[in-house]
Amino acid sequence: MKLFILYQTDNWKSRASRVCFGVFVTRTKAIDSAKWQELYNHNSEVVVVEVTLNLFEEV
């Protein structure tokens, strides 16, 4: 099963600046939530990472 993690990060998309905003079942729901929460602005970027459930790996 695939899950999608929604992060807000700086313009350079560095891992140190990531803030997690939720885990979603579909990419569309993650993007809609980012728009609804107004996470898009000129100082930040939104990153949606696809992960597989029950798989041990670095995110």
Provide a quick synopsis of the model.
The chain contains one helix and three strands.
Describe this entry's structure for a reader.
With 59 residues, this protein is an alpha+beta fold. It has one domain (1-11, 24-59). It is 17% helix and 41% strand. It has 1 helix and 3 strands; from the N terminus they run E-E-H-E. It has one helix at 27-36; strands at 2-10, 19-24, 44-52. A 3-stranded antiparallel sheet has the order 2-1-3, with helices on one face. A hairpin with an 8-residue loop joins strand 1 and strand 2. The two termini are 16 Å apart.
Supply the number of structural domains: 1
Regions with little confidence, pLDDT below 50 for 5+ residues: none
Shape: flat
- Overall pLDDT metric: 92
Strand content bin? 35-45%
Helix content: 10-25%
Distance between the termini: 16 Å
Number of strands: 3
Give the tags.
1 helix; 3-stranded antiparallel β-sheet; alpha+beta
